Amino acid sequence: MPNGQDQAATVPLPSSSVKPVTATAAGTVVANGQTHHQRQHHLWLVTGPAGSGKTTVAEHLATALQLPYIEGDLYHPKANIDKMSAGIPLTDSDRWDWLTELRKQSNSRIHDGAEGVVVACSALKLKYRDVIRVAAYWDRTLVIHFIFLYAPAELILERVAARKGHYMGANMVKSQFDILERPREDEVDVITVDASGDVEDVKEDALEKVRALLAAEG
Questions:
Q1: Residue 182 CA to chain centroid, in angstroms?
Q2: In this structure, how many other beta carbons lie within 10 angstroms of the beta carbon of residue 72?
Q3: Span between the terminal Cα atoms of the chain, in Å
Q4: Are strands 142-150 and 190-194 parallel, antiparallel or unpaired?
Q5: What is the pLDDT of residues 75-117, one digit of tens each?
Q6: Which residue ranges form the domains of the chain, and what is each CATH number?
Q7: What distance in Å separates the CA atoms of residue 77 and residue 163, rounded to the nearest whole number?
Q8: What is the mean pLDDT of the chain?
Q9: Which of 9, 28, 82, 116 has the fewest beta carbons closer than 10 A?
Q10: What is the predicted pLDDT for the residue at 89?
Q11: SS3 of 144, please?
């Protein structure tokens, strides 16, 4: 502070007739005692273990909702890809920068004018999902939803074993289920979708639940 003075003492206090502007909820701002509704932006994160169908479902949602799509795997640093290719599970520290980058990329799309974004991202642990949730603290118009795809480990293993040319091998499935924290009841921003059925049914079930949620939000 200049000359050791308390800057707060030099700043005039607002008149009692001027009410502050405060954000009370996503998309809602109170200014001068009146509530103003801002346009909301939705961030849809399709989550789950490798082989659960994240990319397939996320691409379907992005097309149907006419929103930009972000493939989370493309933003892993090379060191992460090298580890997974070698069958070495990622640690929490390996994932922080990746999750932060996905959050940054999502915000960037919205700031560029998109009404929302669809992201495919495993988000296996509660704290990983919380890293993404931070985005809503900085943008009160942002509404975040996780679409959790779940299927038995045996079925996921079969699917991953059948894939060709992907760095996530079948040997990594167990490590993902070992750390998987299924969404808790108090994670009210999560939609759970049974991913064990036919792929077309899973896609339509996810889209139906998303549209129902949008309709309920008005």
A1: 15
A2: 22
A3: 48
A4: parallel
A5: 999 999 889 888 888 999 999 999 999 999 999 999 999 999 9
A6: 39-215 (3.40.50.300)
A7: 22
A8: 83
A9: 9
A10: 87
A11: strand
